[in-house]
Specification:
By secondary structure, the chain is an alpha+beta fold. A hairpin with a 4-residue loop joins strand 14 and strand 15. It folds into two domains: about 220 residues, no CATH class; about 210 residues, no CATH class. Helix content is about 45%, strand content about 15%. Strands 1, 2, 3, 4, 5, 6, 7 and 8 form an eight-stranded antiparallel beta sheet that branches. It has a five-stranded mixed beta sheet with strand order 11-10-9-12-13. The chain has a two-stranded antiparallel ribbon with strand order 14-15.
Length: about 500
């Protein structure tokens, strides 16, 4: 369930399982293959157009001017380049026009409006590449298309009388597919289906050895609110790459994000090692003597041979990744609901997760002369998805008419502040407990969450007066949480410092 703000009206999404038969699944797979082909054909066409434009003298001279000018004076040149691109056919409307003759070859299966939606998706990729931070436009790898959508309900796709209808184009031989949709089982689903359907998409998910299919409806309005207890106090959240600390007037918690996926992750790593060994055994000519992949010759494509055992393991890895994603989303939703029971005034520090994913640029050597690893937090972020948790929490707060309060990270500096004397002291990452000027020791993450909970109205520093009023209660809750973690039979990660 997602909450999507919109200019004219709010949107919410409901996903329902499709009760497919084998012959229907065959037709669905055919249509997914057609959509992959159409999308890649359009990408190839637009890349050729872009390459031809980049070869022109006018475009080369304009790019040279942009490179030579300082950033503050580039705006008129960027406008000139945008106009040149539009003239060359780089706009959403032009992409849709280019898709139309391609769609006619597959009109028995695909309606024009569905292919136009795919053209809009391709345009967004080019828009990011040409005008934003996108680095490259990628082709759709075979078998990786997960969904097909229509632009508007009734244009190629429709949902009525518990049936999903997926029709072809306007041809005499158009194939119309009618699939039963599982009837709503809960009060939530029944209330959601009373709303107007704006558009829809069909989604496929790999489960064990086959695909399962779902209908995703985009509905007009706010999502139905389940009867849950909602708190009214202030809540501070200090979130890291793997852990989260929560502080409120009644509770202090230090938790590991999505802790239930760890077993699946270990199993996935074991399978990937076996897959690598199998791939090397069946393709010895594709590897150098030092184990690296051999470079292919110019104009020649490297061929790979995979055993049946390798393909089975690949399907198992695919299933584990699907399970991890579902478990992670479920746990994040449960934790977000728990936060809302504590209060709706939630304070958090913004963090650049994109930067934490990157490898370190500087090459360092330890005391023994060995090179230190450059990898940072990419694997933890992929497994625990802290940014996704914040997105879910922000959506749930939006449903309540509230917003997530992001403090000024450069001025707030929760991990460095000591409210007892109002000073800042930078700590090493290995220091998991903070020592206050009074001599008291507090766990670093929980204390940061406490300071965030007591933020001032400007969101640029802790409110020292409010901190003094709530600190005694925080110490009691802090001691209870530390003892709970120590007595817990489950494994606790090293960054807790407990």
């Amino acid at each position: 369930m997602y909450y999507v703000p919109n200019t004219d009206s709010n949107r919410c999404i409901l996903t329902l399982p499709l009760m497919t038969e084998p012959w229907q699944e065959h037709l669905i797979e055919t249509r997914f293959d057609i959509m992959e082909h159409l999308k890649n054909s359009l990408i190839a066409l637009e890349l050729r157009k872009l390459k031809n434009l980049q070869r022109t003298r006018a475009y080369k001279e304009l790019e040279k001017k942009i490179f030579e000018k300082p950033k503050e004076e580039r705006k008129p040149l960027y406008k000139e380049r945008s106009a040149m691109l539009r003239t060359a056919g780089f706009s959403e409307f032009d992409f849709i026009n280019d898709m139309t003759p391609m769609q006619k070859h597959f009109a028995d299966h695909i309606a024009a409006q569905i292919s136009h939606r795919s053209a809009s998706d391709v345009w967004r990729a080019f828009e990011s590449y040409l005008f934003s931070s996108g680095r490259e436009v990628h082709f759709q790898k075979r078998g990786t298309l997960d969904s097909v959508a229509c632009k508007k309900a009734g244009n190629g796709m429709n949902y009525r009388n518990d049936t999903f209808e997926w029709s072809g184009g306007r041809t005499p031989n158009a194939k119309r597919l009618c699939i039963r949709v599982e009837k709503p089982q809960t009060e939530y689903e029944k209330h959601m289906l009373e709303k107007e359907v704006k558009n829809m998409r069909i989604i496929r998910k790999w489960m064990k050895t086959r695909y399962k299919y779902y209908l995703q409806l985009t509905l007009v309005g706010d999502p139905y609110q389940k009867p849950r207890k909602i708190g009214e106090g202030r809540v501070g959240i200090d979130i890291g790459t793997r852990t989260i600390a929560i502080a409120s007037e009644t509770t202090v918690r230090l938790l590991e994000l999505a802790d239930r996926i760890d077993g699946n992750h270990k199993r996935k790593c074991e399978l990937q090692r076996k897959m690598d060994a199998s791939k090397r055994a069946t393709n010895p000519d594709n590897f150098n003597s030092d184990g690296t992949i051999r470079r292919r010759s110019k104009g020649k494509k490297m061929t790979w041979h995979f055993s049946k055992h390798y393909l089975r393991m690949r399907d198992q890895v695919r299933e584990l990744e699907r399970k991890n994603a579902d478990i992670r989303t479920y746990q994040h939703n449960c934790l977000a609901n728990e936060v809302l029971t504590l209060g709706t005034d939630v304070f958090v520090e913004p963090m650049s997760y994109k930067g934490l994913q990157h490898r370190a640029k500087e090459t360092k050597v330890d005391e023994k002369g060995r090179y230190l690893k450059k990898k940072r937090f990419g694997k933890s972020l992929a497994n625990k998805a802290p940014s996704k948790f914040l997105m879910i929490l922000e959506n749930k707060l939006a449903c309540k008419g509230k917003a997530l309060n992001y403090v000024d990270i450069n001025r707030f500096r929760a991990s460095q502040f000591d409210h007892t004397n109002g000073t800042y002291r930078k700590k090493q990452l290995s220091e998991r407990f903070a020592t206050l000027s009074t001599g008291e020791h507090v766990q670093r993450d929980m204390y940061s969450a406490f300071l965030l909970m007591n933020s001032n109205d400007s969101l640029n520093a802790p409110d020292i007066e409010r901190c003094g009023q709530t600190f005694e209660r925080f110490k009691e809750l802090h001691a209870i949480e530390v003892e709970r973690i120590r007595q817990s039979p489950y494994r606790r990660i090293q960054s807790f410092g407990i």
